[in-house]
Design a protein that fits this description.
The protein contains 14 helices and 24 strands. It is of the alpha/beta class.
Length: about 500
């Protein structure tokens, strides 16, 4: 085990968290059943109350009641809440980012980037409020107009994961609100403090612009709280981010009551590196995508499929870069890799490396635990493992910084290898050959929802729809026309003639 500089005691971090909550307008948590821990030391920061079943029902009641009037507010007026939220986030960017660091362990640059993403999506949603377009189609009947209109859907239940504790909530909430929906948010029980802060900022934004603050509800607790959102018929859409196993439990239950699901689940993301690739550029992109956020992004790069002619030079560059990565206190500006979220994540990483070696893999660098933050904190050096073939462990997503290296001779074989996993979120190819790039983007190329050329698999912009295929769940959030998931479509026919022709030329009577 290697050693990094000591961190402040958990008590000091708890005081810091309480001050940040107060600055963000959230009542500092006191007693409660839900502990807020920091992966920086593994210790407890504060405790917050968990919602009872009655309180969850009440929150859904209030959101449903607020929806009845919120849906009739013109969309550009609804956007005033989101505009003000974006302004408050800009004013409190540093405080909220630091709270993200304390609760999740992200380095400062990534935490600030996550809050900036919230600000960006608020700007996007404000513009979207004037672009919730329907369409007019040519009617086959004279004197008739055929059109589509879009209407608010209802209560949206947002179930979010720990790794992006605020950004994913904002993707859903900003767009749902301008679409005329109300929101009930069940955050990860690992990140209750950032949830309190965001809820307070949104409630403040609503109050300041004269909107009903009940358009947003926060319910904290374990999986039972999420289950109530999943099963309640008043929750029109459940947007859930998490594991494949969670999605497999959520989707059938929502479908059984004919509700809607928007799922963002597993990502076992791969990149192809061709002989024509700019290896310096590829190295920089791969290191960030694979080691950023300590490998705890859904878009983390977990597999690289490298042409045999360049695998040696690329691995030399990668391992040299990995050995220089500063691992340690994410509050320190020099750190590039913070801690894993908890002991379970560390054990998963260690088990995956052991299984990879048992399958004939070779650990090229990394994988060891770093002594920082005390015995209950789990800092690790990102690992690179060369694999002889795409074994069972390579087909699985381990939520930790492990990069598997496979090789190929033929691009078609590389694409087949890339697509040969159950997940389908994000993909990349590194090449200077336009034909290779276009081949990877073609219908029979990458099967992922996000496919990039000469950039890594992580770091998506908010303007494009985010989501993936296969076990990733098929959902789309944030940009493009993802707003349609939060609304219902109506086809309307208007007869402005004095006749009553029927479609398809049918005559009746």
């Amino acid at each position: 085990m290697t050693t990094a500089p000591a961190l402040p005691r958990t008590g000091k971090l708890a005081e810091r968290a309480a001050r940040l909550l107060a600055a963000l307008g959230a009542t500092p948590a006191g007693s409660g059943d839900l502990p807020a821990r920091t992966p920086l030391t593994g210790g407890e920061l504060l405790r917050v109350p968990a919602a009872t079943a009655v309180e969850v029902t009440c929150a859904i009641d209030q959101a449903h009641s607020a929806f009845r009037s919120w849906r009739t507010v013109p969309a550009p007026q609804r956007a005033a809440v989101v505009r003000r939220l974006g302004q408050l986030l800009s004013e409190h960017l540093d405080e909220l980012a630091e709270l993200v660091t304390l609760e999740v362990g992200k380095i400062g640059a990534e935490a600030r980037g996550e809050v900036q993403e919230m600000i960006d999506v608020c700007e996007f949603a404000v513009g979207l409020s004037r672009q919730l377009y329907g369409r007019t189609m040519a009617s086959e009947r004279p004197g008739h107009r055929l059109m589509e209109t879009w209407h608010p859907l209802g209560v949206v239940g947002v179930i979010s994961a720990f790794n992006f504790p605020v950004a994913v909530w904002s993707w859903n909430t900003a767009i749902a609100l301008v679409c005329g929906d109300t929101v009930v948010w069940k955050p990860s029980q690992t990140t209750p403090l950032t949830a309190l802060a965001c809820h307070a900022l949104l409630r403040r934004a609503a109050t300041e612009v004269g909107a009903d603050p009940n358009i947003h509800q926060l319910v904290q607790g374990d999986a039972g709280v999420g289950a109530q959102l999943v099963d309640d018929e008043r929750v029109a859409l459940v947007s859930a981010t998490g594991s494949v196993r969670m999605g497999q439990a959520v989707a059938p239950r929502v479908a059984a009551r004919f509700g809607r699901c928007l799922l963002e689940l597993g990502g076992n993301n791969g990149a192809v590196v061709t002989p024509s690739a700019d290896l310096e550029l590829a190295t920089r992109a791969i290191v960030f995508a694979a080691a950023g956020t300590a490998g705890q992004r859904c878009t983390t790069l977990r597999r690289i499929i490298v042409h045999v002619d360049v695998v040696g030079p690329l691995l030399d560059r990668l391992c040299a870069a990995y050995r220089q990565l500063p691992v340690g206190n994410p509050l320190d500006d020099g750190a590039l890799v913070g801690p894993l979220i908890d002991a379970k994540a560390y054990e998963s990483m260690r088990s995956a490396i052991e299984r990879a070696i048992d399958d004939g893999g070779e650990l090229l660098c990394g994988g060891e635990r770093v002594d920082a933050g005390g015995p209950d904190a789990y800092y690790v050096r990102p690992a690179v493992v060369r694999m002889p073939a795409q074994s069972a462990i390579v087909r699985e997503e381990t939520f930790a910084p492990i990069l598997y290296v496979l090789t190929y001779h033929d691009l078609d074989a590389a694409i087949e290898l890339h697509n040969g996993v159950p997940q389908g979120l994000s993909a990349a190819i590194f090449t200077s050959d336009q034909r290779e790039a276009e081949r990877f983007l073609a219908p029979d190329g990458s099967d992922c929802g996000i496919t990039n050329v000469n950039i890594g698999t992580s770091g998506a912009e908010i303007g494009g729809a985010f989501g993936g295929e296969k076990q990733t769940g098929g959902g789309r959030e944030s940009g493009s026309d993802a707003w349609k998931a939060y609304m219902r479509r109506a086809t309307n026919t208007v007869n402005y003639s004095t006749e009553l022709p029927l479609a398809q030329g049918i005559r009746f009577g």
